[in-house]
What does this fold into?
Amino acid sequence: MALIGFSSAAFSETNNNKTPSEVTGHKILVAFFSWGGTTKQIAENIVKHTGGTLFRIETVKPYPTEYKTCTEVAREERDKGVRPELKTVVEDMDEYDIVFVGCPVWWHTAPMAIWSFLKSDNYDFSGKTIIPFCTYEETYRDETLAKIVELTPNSKHLDGFGTIDKNADVTNWLNEIGVITVNN
It folds into this structure.
């Protein structure tokens, strides 16, 4: 499933003297789920360049800290369609019109914590612009980005970003999708 790219004209201005949040003219949320810290660092880089608000998606029951055990839990959740309960909610979701959603690739797709977040009765993503991003070790980047799009069918979607490098530069991608037009 390919991600659909929309015109970025609505999201950018030509005045490069403005800060990223002024350039977009929109309220941005950067929601992420991170187990090992790589996705968290990419989310923080996005916030740095967009002026968005950072929100960590956390489960009530933490995932095991040991890698192999964590992968077993993640696979079982995926196979059984378990949506883990989340620890916190975004209280003012209606105020955001652009929502970045990020996660690591787990078992060829987005972790079930992302499903819990995007399918929560607490939020209505209709009409919002969803921008997926993910981190991965080997592959399944496109499948994971596509799952985030699939879970938000009533939203607009901009092209996503995936990387294996926690220090990846997100500036070019953000410029390409029109969320920022300045280099920070």
Q: What stands out?
A: The longest strand covers residues 98-104. Helices lie at 20-24, 38-50, 67-80, 112-118, 141-150, 171-176. Residues 9-176 form a domain with the Rossmann fold fold (CATH 3.40.50.360). The chain is about 30% helix and 15% strand.
